[in-house]
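Order emerges. One example.
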Amino acid sequence: MKFQSFTSKTLFAHKEYTKILKIPENALDNVDDIVLKKEWYETLYKEANKNKIILMSTPFSVEAVDDMDKYVPIYKIASCDIDNIPLLRKVASTKKPVILSTGLATNKDIKNALNILKNNEVALLHCSVEYPTPLENARLNRIVVMNKLFKKNIIGYSDHTIGIDAPIIAYTLGAKIIEKHFTITPEKKSGDHIISLDTNSMKEMISKLKDTNKMLGGNDALKNEKKMSKQEKKELVYAKRGIYLNHSMLKNEVITEKDLITLRPCVGISAKDYDKVVGKKLKLDKKSFTALSTSDLKK
């Protein structure tokens, strides 16, 4: 579970920010009303531990790192701060694992950040900073590219689309971490609520991710040789074909292609050894539509 750690004073230059967005100067006056209060940290930490939940923080300032450091084992860096050198250095100094969003980053930006965080274990999240992200701007194939470019890093996906389809697709493309916003008031459409999942939809997403993992087959499916299930192995006998005589034949007769037919089940010589049977002599009389075995043939 991840929280954001910021204050309006450490996030905005109020006058310039409101000017560039062309919004009233007092538009940010209530930002601190939604700030995670410092006095809550201890309670959140204890509740997370009690429920075996990993607590994480996205710090938006150097001060926030100091405030949260004793409570969190992992840091998340937002897309907007991927080139915030002071913050990156502060987080790097903790030597803790870092999840780094790359929504506003070039490959060079990512490499520069990784260089600062070279002593930290870093996971990279593909994302878009559009809220909500139009489906055509999700660009999920970027996950494939990032897995090729940054092989030493775990690649994940931070989703800002509406619904749960994008995270499922992202997982199939190689995302090992899925970040999705959560709300207890889905009826609200302002801010992050429209892209967030409520309890039921979050459970649905997690369930579908687990089902997707089963269908992908895990690491076994990535091996060069296909691994068959126990049931498939059982079905081999009656699903595959064996070699049968299509009419009765006598001892010492030479078998030709006209004498053979491939049928289920494969209880004798497999159809894949068809060419090894043609031209052989029978050791004994054989009735029609009986399976051939190696013991029936002369060498």
Notes: Residues 230-296 form a domain with the Type Iii Antifreeze Protein Isoform Hplc 12 fold (CATH 3.90.1210.10).
